[in-house]
Amino acid sequence: MRGSFRRFTLLALGLVLLGALTAAVAAARGSTSGATIKNGGTLTIGLAEEPDALDPTIARTFVGRIVFLATCEKLYDLDSHLNIVPQLAAALPQVSKDKLTYTIKLRSGIKFNDGTPFNAAAVKTTIERYLTFKGSVRASEISPIKTVDAPNATTVVLHLSSPYSPLTAQLADRAGMILSPKALASSASFAQDPVCVGAFSFKDRVAGDHITLVKSNDYYDKAKVHLSSIVFKIMTDPSSRTQALRAGDIQVEDRIQSTDVPTLQKDKSVTVSKAVTIGYQGLTLNIGNSKGVGKGFSNTGTPIAKSQFLRTAFDAALDRTTINKVVFGGLNLPDCYPIAPVSPWYKPTTAGLQCNLHANVALAKSLVKASGIADPTVHLMLGGTDPVNARLGQVIQSMEKAVGINVTVQPTEFTTSLNTATAGNFEAYAVGWSGRVDPDGNIYSQVATPGTLNYSGYSNAKLDYILNGARKSVTTKSRDTLYRAAMKIIHNDRPIIYLYHPVNYYGTSKKVSGVQIFGDGLIRAQFAGYTQ
Amino acid sequence: MGGFLLRKAGAALIVVFCSSVVVFVGVRALPGDPAVALSGENRDPAVLAAVREKYGLDQPLPVQYVKWVGRAVRGDLGVDSRDLPVAHTIVTRIPITLELALLSVALGMLIGITSGVIAAVRRGKAEDHAATTFALVGLSLPHFWLGLMMIILFAVDLHWLPSSGYVSFGQHPIQNLEHMVMPAIVLGTGLSAVLMRQMRSSMLASLGADYVRTARAKGLTEASVIGKHALRNSLITVTTVVGLQLGALISGAVITEQIFVIPGFGRLTLEAINQRDYTLLQGVVLVAATGYVVVNLLVDVIYSLLNPRIRVTGAAP
Question: Do B148 and B222 reside in the same domain of the chain?
Fold first, then answer.
């Protein structure tokens, strides 16, 4: 009896101590704000992942692009409305009548961060490197480029093997980043000491910890650059990132986890901003991928592959608004298309299509009946084993159950799920895409017959014809028409059921001004600074 | 002595070889194609082929193994997915984790031994109950919870300490300590609890022993009896526990380093696994395994120097 009392006392004391430590944690915090930006200071950005190689030739990660924005400028960039605008180029490219020659005029008087001149010869060297470097990730993005000419210091001519209208958009991403020929020639590994044209030049990198950039003396617009340096801190734990922002150890937080958003919104020292991304999350339905992507498609014979009625019923049973509320706390943007509303392509390509954000149970039930498949079952593979994915699977399962479709949920580790999807060993796959500025980047690879990401095994000659036509077409109007036609086919056949566009949340200290985040989700901090 | 050393070194080499095979096979047993993981969203067959070629993944496993080991014995562990040399990355990370582990041990010993002695001397009193409660709480607290609570209290609310990050001692000694104090407390709390319990029971045994009674009978002061006699004897078992806990501390550093964003060896291991970076993961695990083997070899040698009978008993008939 005495022993139990003693144990109880110890337990109670322990709980009191725990409670005291937890209670000590609540306190009010002050804020500072100002209007004008002063020069100097170091901005620390907490990145959610670690960038891979800092060589645009082989770089693959999303966060790597955030670092490149400050140190590796491109021929073209995006404005806040995601329109393509010239950056190192003087104007948008002049395209020949046969659409096989792109003439790009370059800005003059620009230097790389090693002091060497930026010119057409450097552009030619860089693009040729992207096309021929062993292991280049850029080669496939600009593969239609056959040869590059540099007739004078400020003119570059790209000769294409076939018309390819997404080329300008590709040149507004990593394929448009121009590397210093001197650095390429002198360094064994460009990634270890990258040199481009940029507001900041590379200083050092401690793998797994940070990347430091310092203000460039050679930058053509250095009067606009206020900070002395930018440190990209690798902080993969989201809670640590949030607390570091609140403590003032970092000034910008990359992608706040949804559970921390309300906390930071209450913090007076922090501004929370959001960006609807150009990516999407959806359910890929395996229609014809029975042998693996790129190995020829034939119907897999599963209920969801055989019956278009069932695929439509599956879609009609989904309540996208509820999914967003229950799984993501209402933080994402429910939608039915691969192109996001923030894109200038959204309205013209989705006009006339109907997106049902709420479930239509009666319609879904009648479609299940019309499919003629009794008690249909769909195996849903989740591209992750985290709690959010699990919740998504459970919600979908219960919605489909209500219309008579049984869903079994298979949580799968992400890389394994990609392998499984590529091999065609799935029925439905919950997976997303980070998104590209040009609509081709969100559609062609995923649903065109030769698409490298066509996990659905969907093959439609009419759609292929339209998508190839859109690649060759140059005018915005004709591309709008073609993509609208493509959307109708995808919407009807449902190789992918699009669910929502992710919305990313970012935290910025109120001591800082000028940090910009557009729909591409990248943090633009090169012209930011501390307020007075 | 020479023969003994040769035998031990030979055995260590065999263990390192076996470890390298286990590491190599184990890493490849992870689900998922590393080329897919390393190529990001790009599934272009040409890109996947280039990634496989770059990391030698397109070659038969025995060829991959021989090439890897051949380079590793020359100190070249290859380049990781960031195009950075793995050996250099590992060499820069190890001292950080060692510093964290040593600070945690120092802190754990200071708190654990002191509170253990007090608890034993004041057995059944309030101090004893307080120390026992502390040990119970210390053992029960998960590292991640304690870490986050400390960050919120000392970094976010009070602004006394930085919430995360690392500054090397050579770069700025004060800032180094500021960055390491919270992680060391988090990692050292569990150890101090274990040591407190161990110290308390050892001290209680010592205080009840004949030689302590004799010391008291000789008229020695209580401080002298506790400090010079009971404590010294009790420290022997505590030292053994500290040695055993060191390995656990280094493992525990994985979580602590992740919470406090310390670029140590533990976090590097986690990154390598998450990114499916075979080259980095192989390097990390091989270095860790070799480290354990070398430490064990050194311990064997030290034991044999301290106690020559070990050399004789270990000799072949």
Answer: yes
